[in-house]
Structures are given as structure tokens and as C-alpha cells.
Amino acid sequence: LNLLPRVRQNLMFSATFSHDIRNLAKGLVNDPVEISVSPRNTTVDTVTHWISPVDKKQKSALLAQLIHEENWQQVLVFSRTKHGANRLTKFLEAEGIKSAAIHGNKSQAARTKALADFKSGEVRVLVATDIAARGIDIIQLPQVVNFDLPNVPEDYVHRIGRTGRAGLKGQAISLVSADEFKQLSDIERLLKKLLTRKVIDGFEPTHDLPESRLDTRPFKAKKPKKPRVGHRDGQRSGENAQGHKTGNNARSRNRKPAGGQNKQGGNTGNRTRQRSGNR
Fold it and tell me: How large is the C-alpha radius of gyration of the chain?
């Protein structure tokens, strides 16, 4: 930004504005006007949401079956980790489903090719992490699958916002295991609705996913921790700019010798009293 002209107009666009983004924007814009085309953290009516409760170890097999039986031709799948994206891609390839993965460990050339193949239809499934998927814009994307639920509920809105665009219908499917109930509850609270559940025959979970109860309290995203007053750049209390602890050292330097000892460890109080008495 320092290289830009001093007199300019700054425009900032985002599907959602988290507290982190809003705090960042404060340093980039001056007295901004906010324009929202839809209520904050909401989804469009053209997207059908549903979840499939399933054991974690059965997610890959369930996804492959859904792709085959539902004849999904273009599916964007979100994985929480890079290694998970690679494993899922290999599994789908072994099931005869042409797939590709994009994540931070892939080169830019590899990511560009994978996305181009996905758009052209040469690749049927694109498995992506949240960061690598930024900027993906496919107008007629029919399905988005959350192989792993995001830890941040606002990311769910970002993910499924890639389907159901321009008035077209889309599906947002989430494969949810029992240990993801907290993430599911946060997402439903953010959306202010419970997501439809579909248990697929042959994939009934052995670890039951608890029934959801809609939390109607206003959703508040976690605010980033602010630096303590008097500490530069958020350095921790009791540390100087180099990260060394100062509080204990300062106290130890100013502390008086204990037990009436001088710096050399000798007793000073007794000597003083003895001298005074002899006199």
C-alpha cells in the first residue's frame, strides 16, 4: 500500500467480514461506508443444505458412493488438512473417479492446471483446503462437499458460497462424524437453522451424532486477543523486546539480601550489634 498514490479510493470485498478482517480494514480505509447485499453470514435460498452422519473412517467410501450413485460430475470437496486432501484424492482415483488436489504444498503451476482441468471437466472432483480454494470462481458448480467441517463457522459460508450462484441451484453436503458435533452446532447457530440429516444405507454410524438443538443466542465470533496495555506489539507481560523475562530479574536485583547477609554471604546484623555492645 505504501507504493500506491496518496490520493486514492480503497474498496474492500469479502463474502463475510470476521473480526480479524474488520480490524485489518480499520488501518486501510478512512471512515468507510459499508454496503451489504445480504444479511451477514447468510446463505442463498438456491442452495440445499444437508448433512450425512457417518463414522470418520467411512467418509471416503461414502463420498465415493455418493459420487457414483448420484452421478455427480463436478464436485468441490473441502478437506481440513493438506495430507487429508492427498489421501482422499488417491482413494477416489483408486475408485475410478478422476480427482485432483490443491493446497499449499502444491506449486502454483500444479494448482493452476488442477483448477483448469476441473473447470473443463477433465477432473471430476477437486479436493481443496480453505486457503488454496480462495479465488476459485466457477459459475455453475452444482455440488460442494465438506469432507471435514471447518473449525471456524464463517468458513462454512465461504465454502458453500461457491455453489448456487447466479440463481442456479446447488447442493452443500457435509459428512459429519460424532467428534464434529461442536463445529456443527456452531454452524447451525450461525445460520440460525438446523441442517437436514440423511443417514445413507450401509453407512450408519456406530458413534451416534447427537441431535442438534438450535441455539438462538446471537452468534459472536471470537475476537482476536489484544496486546496488554503498556506492552509493545503484544509482547507478553514480564518480557522485554528481545523476549527475555524482566519482572523476576528486576525484582531479584532490587531485593535486599535475606537473613541479614551481605553480598558476600556474611552476617552483618550480628556484627553491628556486637560492636555497639563492646563500645
Answer: 29
Of all residues in the chain, the percent with pLDDT exceeding 70 is 73
In a 3-state reduction of DSSP, which class is residue 99? Answer: strand
The confidence score (pLDDT) of residue 267 equals 52
Identify the sign of the CA torsion 130, 175, 139, 193.
Answer: negative
pLDDT in tens, 60-79: 999 999 999 999 999 999 99
- Which pTM value belongs to this model? 0.66
The CATH H-level (homologous superfamily) assignment of domain 47-197 is P-loop containing nucleotide triphosphate hydrolases (3.40.50.300)
Pairing type for strands 196-197 and 99-102 reads unpaired
Q: Give a three-class secondary structure readout of 19-67.
A: HHHHHHHHCCCCCCCCCCCCCCCCCCCCEEEEEEECCHHHHHHHHHHHH
- Domain range list for the chain: 47-197
Residue 77, H or E segment: strand 75-78
Residue 188 pLDDT more than 50? yes
Task: Please state whether beta strands 75-78 and 143-146 pair in parallel, antiparallel, or not at all (unpaired).
Answer: parallel
